[in-house]
Each structure stands twice: as structure tokens, then as C-alpha cells.
Amino acid sequence: MRGEILRLYKSVHTWTGIVTGMLLFVCFYAGALTIFAEPLAHWASPPAGGSISIEAADRLIEKTLAARPEAAKDFTLRLATANEPARLSWRKSRGDDVVWSATLGADGEARIERANVSGLGAFVDAIHRTAGLPLDLETGTTVMGVVSAVYAVALVSGLILVLPSLAKDFLALRLTANLKRMWLDAHNLVGVASFPFHLVIALTAVVFGLHEPIYDALDHAVYDGRLSTIMRSTGPFAGVKRDEQNAPMKKVAELVAAVASASPNFSPASLHYRDAGARGALVRVIGEAPRFLSRGGGFAVLRGATAEIVNVDYLPEKQSGWTAAVSPFFALHFGSYGGEPVRWAYFFLGLAGAFLFYSGNLLWIESRRRTARRHGEQVVQTTASRLMAAASIGVCLGCVCALSVAIVSTKWLYGHVEDVDAWRRGIYHAVFFGALAFALLRGAARAGAELAYAAALGALALPVTSVAAWAAPGLGPWAAVDPESAGVDVVAFGAALCFAALGRATARRAELGPADSVWSARRPREGSRGLRIPLSSNEHAAAIGAGDGDVHG
């Protein structure tokens, strides 16, 4: 009975993993990059001159609203950092794709331009939320909510599978000639060690992805169509009436100080103004308090004309009730707590998750060869197996290549095209689907190595672009010489080395590995039905060296 149960869970784990694996690779790889979306956006954004003092923010607001009074209705002021001056952004109307940006020039006047590169972080996040599917954001997110539910099933079934041998094999990583055994050990080790992280990500992604269907069901079954009214009554702007009578706004420093008095551990990053210049103006002061679990860092709502605090329910240390119950879902999913150590941990856990899905698909495809040999059958790689292997290579490594090229293109295209966002999306999908088509045409064995080398070149393009900008200013993109940008280049260079090593190992496996494997670039010899297809002595030695062997247990 126990064997039957384990076989059932193995079947569930296998098929749920296959169905979700490739999409989840894209989500996890892009999700790892979103942890450092701001440094990436800074690397890809043109330098902005001007003062970085907080007093400059007041002059920026004054100058911008004098030139563009329509921005007063709804704009965001991003506070200055050590590397960037204060920046003000707005849209002409709700839903407008065009974002306008203003900074203070050296002459003290507002420099207003279309914010061509401000969407890099949002672009990477959209790939993370939709797995890069060519769908609108809402539909793609809903699809990934369903995928995340299947992903949770795969997690639980996988844990049940390894429980019988957990004590013996948990920390076993056998670095032997048997590559398949090593891949399985690595897959199990990463899967079990990061199980709590994956379970949190799966469950929170289900909530995020399916929140609209969940709300609709609750509205119909529990709230009798009153849910939207109830949500508005408990929102951050509940009970605040608009007053359009003119009134001067409090200084930015006064608004920030008001929030600091309510929450000393809170660090403001931006201010979102609504109806600036009116007595009823509201300002959301947005920031973070790393010591607390919070929704996107948290915020407080103030009256812009008086600096009176209207709502602190979303400040990390002031949360209670429903806000306190919901905020951990956001914080645990996005890693918006604990500061830099947690962000780096989420970054590596995200990459480890991508490896988990990649290795899972590769193991399943190769396991068919073991099954055929166990039953004394001749190993025949079906068209379906070859297509699945090629698709796994094309989707996973295609995503890596496409994201690198899209990020680099952001920096090179600035000033040469009107809509960088549209070009970036087009470049991503062109590279991604091009890589997928390439893998299907070349086959998994050859494309696995060639696309890994392409991924290495894509990652290397980031530091090469920075060096080119530094060596030849004015001829190419701008040079951003600061620790934040240097960190991006260092990580990208490390990634290039890793993908180059992967390409070398994959090429060696394709040339020296067992010829009856889907990962071999050699054609198998004709052989009679039996345990193995006969090989020459040289091929047999090569197969042993490349890790041919069955995996038991």
C-alpha cells in the first residue's frame, strides 16, 4: 500500500511539475531580478543633475506646477538619494501610458521630459507576474495564479516523496561521474532546503493572482454585492472629503517630520500628492521600515495643507486588524523586510527556485531512458520527448537571454526612440521566441550549450556597456560610476561566468554522453532490443566519463 501511495504522489509531482515548470522558471528568474529592480533601473537610467537636498524638492514642485498645472491633480515626488536628485513624475490622465518626469537643472529651473526609462522595474515585474506570456497584465496574473495553485500541489507531493529517505539523503550531494545522480541530489537538496520559501511564494502568489475571482466569489456569497462599498469605507482615504479651495502646501520636510513623529523607524522614499494646491489635498508618504512585515514598505496619509496625519493604519509599526493580517502576505512574497540581508537571501532563493524547475524538467525527460532499460526495452527517444527537452531549453534559457538583452537595450535606446517601453517589450519577445524556435530547430543537446553561451554573452553585455560608456563618453550610452551601478556590473559578470560554465558542461555532455540520451548530439547506433544499445569501447568509456548510469532510490 505504501508503494502505491508513493507512486501516486510521484505521478502527481511529475505531471504538476512538468505543467508548471517552464512558466515558473520565468517567474522565479525575473522575480529574483525584481529584488534589485531599483539598482537595475538606476544602471539603465540617464544621470540627472541638480541639487539633492530635500529643500530642492519644494522648488521642484513649485517650478513644475507652474509649468504644468495639470500635474497638480495627481503626481509623485521621489525623494533624493545619494545618487539621484529629487524627481517628480505624473501622467496627463488616469490610464495614460505616457509618464512625464521633472528634475531641477543647474539653473534652478524644472527640466521636464518624457520619462522614457522609468518603466524598467515595472517591465521586469510584469515578466515576473505573467511569466512573459503575451497577455495583458491582469489576465496573465490570473493565469499565473492558477499555475501557482498547481505549483503548491507539486511542492507538497514532492516533499512526501523524499520523506522516506530524507534523513539519509537530505545533505547528500554526490559529485560523481554519474551526472544524473548529481542532478537529482541537487534538485532534492534545493527543493527540501527551500521548501518553506517555496510554499510561502506559492500560497501568496495564489492570493495575488486570483484575488479578483476570490473577491467576486466573496462578494456574491458573503457580502451580497456590498464588498466594494465596504472596501472603500476601510481604505486609507475613507471619510476624507475633497475641498478644492486654494491653500498652500506644507514643505516636504514638514510632511516627512510629521510621519517621523508617528513612526521613528519609518524611512520615507516618495510622496504621492492628490489635488496639490487645494485645502483638501492629501499626501501619501511612502517608505519602509525593514524591522516590520509590511505591505510594500507601508505609507501614511496626511493633509497636504496642514501636515495633519489622516491615516497610519498602513505604517508598519501601526498596523492592526485586517491590515496587519494582509501585510505579511506582501512582505513575505516580496522580501520587503529585514533590509539588505533578506533581499540578498530572496535573490539567491529566487535563482535556486529557477534551478529547481529547470533541473526538474531535465530529470523527468531523462528518466524515460532509465525506465526503458529497466524493462529490457530498446531506448527510443520519441518526438514528444525531444520537443519537451527543446522547449525546456528554449523557454528557460530564452528567458535569461531576453531579459539581459531587454535590460541592456534600455540603456542603448535612450534618446534614439520615442517609446523605450514598447521597444523593450518587443525586443524581449523577439529574443525569447527566437530562442525557443532556435532550440526546437537545433534540438535540446546542441541548443542547450549554444543558448547557455548566448546567455553568458547577454549577461556580459551589462559590464561591457558600462566599460564602453566610461571609455568613450559621448559615443555610446552614459557612464554611471557609483557603487549601485558597479554592483549590477559585478553580479552580471558573475552570471556570465556561470552560464559559460553551464554551456561548457552541456557541450561536453552532448559530445561525450550516452548516445541514446535526448541530451546527446550523437546519433545512437542501431541495436537489438535489450538493456542497452551496444556501444564501441571508446563510446562506452566516454559514456562512463560523462555520467551515464541509472538512478535508483
Overall shape: it is globular
Helix content estimate: 55-70%
Radius of gyration over C-alpha positions, nearest whole angstrom: 27 Å
The mean pLDDT is 78
Helix/strand order, N-terminal first:
HHHEEEEHHHHHHHHEEEEHHHHHHH
Count every helix, treating DSSP H or I runs of 4 or more residues as helices.
18
Strand order of the largest sheet: 4-3-2-1-5-6-7-8
Largest sheet: 8 strands, antiparallel
Count of extended strands: 8
Distance between the termini: 18 Å
What amount of the residues lies in strands? Answer: 5-15%
Oligomer: single chain
Structural class: alpha+beta
Q: Give the uncertain stretches in residue-range form.
A: 526-553
Features of this protein?
8 strands, alpha+beta, 553 residues, disordered C terminus, single chain
Structure explained in plain terms:
This protein is of the alpha+beta class and 553 residues long. Helices cover 59% and strands 8% of the residues. The protein has 18 helices and eight strands. Strands 4-3-2-1-5-6-7-8 form an eight-stranded antiparallel β-sheet. The longest helix has 36 residues.
